[in-house]
Amino acid sequence: MASTTNSTTLLSTVDQGGGTAISVVHPDIILTHVFTRLDGPTLASAACSSSQMQALSTEEKLWRDICASTWPSIDHPRLRHVISSFPAGHRSFFSDSFPALDHRSKLKNSDRSSLPLELLSAVDVHYKGELVFSRVYEMETASEWFLWSPFLVDLLEQKESIQTPIRLLGEDQEWFKHLEENLTLSWIVIDPTQKRAANVSSRRPVSVQRHWLTGDIQLQFANIMAGDTASSEFVQCGVVVNCGGKEGGEMHLREVSLVMEDMEGKHLNGGDSLVILKEAMESGKRKKDRIGEEKKRFEEYVELKRESRERKRKRERALDMLCSLTGATLFVTFWYFILFR
Question: Could you tell me if 54 and 99 lie in one domain?
């Protein structure tokens, strides 16, 4: 943005008659006329320029406004209260939630004794930079029912449909590509007890296609994470968005849901999902992916799944053949003893 560029230029230490430009600017002016024009990454960079900038950049209101403009869903009474309890308030929350989560290292801790008792979700969908859907979801995670049932967070009721200003236009492939480039989704999971958060969405869709049964447009966002190597090397934290509507008309959101799947396509239960999400929030790296990198990573994961299924089929065929040979050998041996003893 232009204001960010101008403000960054102002923050540079340009020599002006033996002094630096920023050193003679009153802190209130920096706060109200410079820092308020910066986005999160630029403000974080400015904080590294000097001890004075670092001290000024810790102002809670700055980060609260940045977080609210980046993720409108967090402007919710419950979330405002939870985020205010983070170690550095909204600054900590921004550090946890931006940019994308990258957690593909082996799990360090699979202990279930300290799993979150509650999980909050803050979800925002933007089209061409404009907000089209925003929702907060609170989920109790301590019950036995949750821990052993398939993990699923469904933001919409069964027959709920959210109208959007997006108009369905063009041929399918052309429109699918348009959605890949212009529709973004943020899904931040928050542990209110441990004061940690992570954005588990791929931001842009990794797959757009027609649903084979309903004909709805189905967008898939995915974050590939480290799994429990005893059962699955990687797992897919996937967000599914189903959209309906007629060509030329407005697009409606009919499903926005989060699931966790292993490499065999099986849904993880709540307990296993919490172990992975907790580890991701605490140990996952936050890195900015280049456009297309998330989709490439997803396609590599799909190829790994295909190879894993092929290896499993080969093992099963080999086992079937071994069982058949064993059965035939026993049959021949049995009749040999019957006929020739």
Answer: no
Q: Please count the CA atoms within 13 angstroms of the CA of 241 that sit on its side-chain side.
A: 30
- 205/274 same-domain check: yes
Q: Which of 50-59, 86-95, 225-234, 267-276 has the lowest mean pLDDT?
A: 225-234
Share of the chain above pLDDT 90, in %: 50
Q: Could you tell me if 237 and 196 lie in one domain?
A: yes
Any domain includes 316: no
Together in a domain, 101 and 201: yes
Q: What is the mean pLDDT of residues 124-131?
A: 96
Structural domain tally of the chain?
2
Output 134 or 287, whichever has higher pLDDT: 134
Which residue has 């999160």 as its token pair? 40
Whether 327 is covered by a domain: the verdict is no
